[in-house]
Amino acid sequence: MRARGATSLLAASALVLASCGGGGSGSGGQTPTPNATATATPTPTPGSPFVAPAQEALTTAEVGQIIAQAVAEAQARGLPSFIAVTDRVGNVLGVFRMNGARDTAVVSRKRIGADLPAGQIFGLQGAEVPAQLPAIAKAVTGAYLSSSGNAFTSRTASQIVQEHFPPAPTTVGLESGPLFGVQFSQLPCSDLSARFGDGMIGPKRSPLGLAADPGGIPLYKNGVVVGGIGVMGDGDYGFDANILDVENDAEEAIAIAGAQGFMAPDDIRANRIFVDGTSLRFTDVPTNLGGTGSSFAAINGTAGNLFAVPGYYTGAGLVAGTAYGTSASGLRAATATDFALPGAFILDDGSGNARYPIRGGTDAASVAQPLTQAEVRAIMEETFAVLSRSRAQIRRPLDSTMQASISVVDTHGEILGIVRSSDGPIFGIDVSLQKARTATFFSNPVAAQQLLDAGGAVATYVQRVRDFLGDPNALTGSHAFADRSGGNLSRPYFPDGEVGMPPGPLSVADTATFSPFMVGLQTDLVGDEIFEHVFFTAGLNADTPRGCTAVPVSPSGLPRVANGIQIFPGSVPIYRNGVLVGGIGVSGDGIDQDDMVSFLGLHNAGLRLNTGIGNAPKAIRADTIEVRTGGTTTRLRYVNCPFAPFLDDPAQNVCEGL
Description:
Beta-Lactamase, 658 residues, alpha+beta, signal, 13% strand, single chain, PduO/GlcC-like
């Protein structure tokens, strides 16, 4: 197991760096299950319901134009900045440091209670990081959260990851954001995310995960997302805690100016998309400002210079983007050999081969009857078929088909297959895998021991869970935890959002210390690896190895949660005749949709296969657990499914009955 001393090392290195369920709506503890009208194997619409986006990409001239436009706005506002541009799959196309730009930024000290005192580090809070890293993270966020049907910014991300949704002083008491925890995805230690220069292609990592700090804007050509721009100039890497006011954020203005000519179509911007009746936020700054400036040749070497970032960008010149959908992007249309159903995309190894071909479980050392290749294929096909019929939540136009990614893993966390619809947002690839692994891990008989073996702060969560649930054997496989269930236990208030209630046992121990940069176990599992990577980009040590988290490696050689855990809904564990054999995760288009697709797809696969494969037995699902807090009893949730979810069927409560 890797030593975990990076948090203290970060404090000692600050001067060196300076020189260089329960998210979503739904009813209490009801366990949704498919009704009779939804249990037959679904038949996809003939052909594909998905239209693959055109293969567009930024040229080097366009990357230069974007940077030059941003520089002009930064000069007009007197805020020298770092400006980063990426393509849709996270390749860094250029990083520009303006003369006089701050070398570092501090991760925001804001939290629910009193702000973190200066000089202290808690989770990621208070850490001083090279300023180019937040710029890259913001660009990745704009690119990864967006698609041809939705355009989200880092301000949108801020709105959907906080303890109340929408975040504002007047919304205290509401549930947490629908993507609570997504900021800890696309991690630099992930085994899934590719690394610059390592020979791997496909979705790249982000140095700090996804960003909630305004200043990250997606870039579009002809209605197709081709990348993102991120700006860091004010030295504060934070979030917007009050959605009700309108900020004149200079970093956001600089990014918008850079994006002129490459802005998202009006109709798909976040402000046109509603979640639980609330409009999302695209920007606070007008979206038609700036856009003029000198050529890149005129500013390069005078207003600033291209800036090398170890692990991301050489600084030798601007780079053209890679067109999403080509083999070179690492994501392409599946062939009939790869995956039988039409409209599917898979990850490619760059040579035309599936990076994750469908296979059987690798965990024969731990499971008497591992998943077979045929079973994994059937689970993925049935899940994709449900996805192909489902109504989107966060896509325009209304009544579009849902778009998302699907991952299946075995009990060791090994990837058995990943498939996605053609235009699902890129972030969902990594997150669907996090979800599948998380549900499998917390349902696994070895979960408690693995957390105890991790030691330090991570080990303390075992006793907290056992005390909270009143179960001395919790986390030993006696209950099946979907990601919605674990998410219930990860909120700073339990029940979710109810102020005055205690924190969940997987959240921070003291609610007053919560912030999006320190959420509890999710942060403690990966914080040292993030810091280790920050030091690498500053030239202080080698890069963090592949395989996130403090838990020991499995018999397969990596931690069972090798890209970190996820704590918002969209996954269920897979059982064979009551025995855990794996997990499935879905991410990309609304948390209730993600829940339904994973749960119903697995159920339908069980009917098709008749091999004992299916959802967890009712008696062990987490929604049988009742928790007594504040004089009330609350039941954990398992999954929630949306009302009237299908485009081809008027069925309403499709997840009731089993």
